[in-house]
Automatic annotation (TrEMBL):
It comes from Actinomadura meridiana. This is Condensation domain-containing protein. InterPro entries: CAT-like_dom_sf. Coiled coil: none annotated.
Amino acid sequence: MMTSPALASGPLSWQQESVVRSAATCGRECLWTAFEIPSDVSNDELISRLGRLVRREHSLRIVAVDPAGVGYADAIELPIRYARCSGPGGVPEFVARNKHVEFASGRPRWQLTIIDHRDPAGRPARSALAVFDFMIADMFSLALLRQELCTGVAPSAKRGAGRYREWVVRQRAEFDVDAVDAVSTARAFWDEHLGGASPSGSTPLPGVDDAAPDQVGGTVWLSVPVPMSAADLAAAARRAKATPYTLAVASVAATIATGTAEDDVTLRVINSGRVPDAAATFGRLATSTPIRLNRPGLAGFDVAVAEVRAAWRRVLPHQHTPWEYLRTVCAGRGVTEWEAAGQRQLVVNFFPAPADGLGAADFADKRADLRMTHVELLVVPLVSGGFMFRMMCDSGDLDVESVRRFLHVLADGFTAHVRTVLSEDGRVPEPRR
């Protein structure tokens, strides 16, 4: 039970508003992270660190989210569970069974499970599984949680720690949709960066066909394994003087340019939404921003890396711009309704941390009666090694099998591009079949 029924309310962030609208169609979603608890951190110490984090972070005391706003509790009882696993696959199997949670109304919208198990050598070990309602956190927040619980080091207030509510107020003031006609730094930047292109313009998708006229619509998830180690990707990034994220986006751009002969490609990228003084803010800050790549020879991977690196550096200080603000400010710049070309914009979502506990069920095709207004590629590093490439599209808009072929082309391109950077002779290896 909550230790205090007193509630304070606050506005939704732009990102929460987006998720509230989506939830009406597709239901609640969960984010989760599993990690080993250091052997020198007792359960009591872990709980003490968690309690300190909860007292500081407003987002962890959210107990209600609806279109009217967010409800914060003054204090909560920590939602901690305990479990025990046996066998070599105990923890991954436990995670697979428990990574989705139904959060009761009026209760914290997250929970932490402490798991006793054995390590590969048979020694006693502990892991933790934290599950969050998609409404109140993002993947970067989960990384902040892991870091503080494992190290005991709290982030500085100068980097945004404990200031989620203040961040929401600031964001709404900076990006006021009721004042979109006014000259602003954000609007001036995006006008210059996009150069007249629509922020939600269609991305060329080589080899992807329209759905048959009688095809039933709905979201389809398609996934393929990619046997590229995180270590190889990191080594390639160092050699290319880039980040793994930049290499992944550049690979997508180069693959598209190769298949279409297009040198002007606008993608949409998922990012943390954090500027330096909000870098340690815990909550739902993740957003998406357009990135325009416009350079001759974009099909060449080295050219694509240079262009993505330069464009991302320009976008980085503005990554907290809400998508809703961009859509409103840039209204009339091309067609953005579902029935027109804007629905085929490709969104690239590179996960910041390796995912654990994914099994055959996570790679299987999935369907839902949710209509999508874009195509999304998820690049997910796996604790078990390699990556998962997952693509989401609408089966009423695009032929699913042609999307599956395109997904394999993207995965093969990623593998070939990284190996080319790592190879001494620069030859592109044969793609997987």
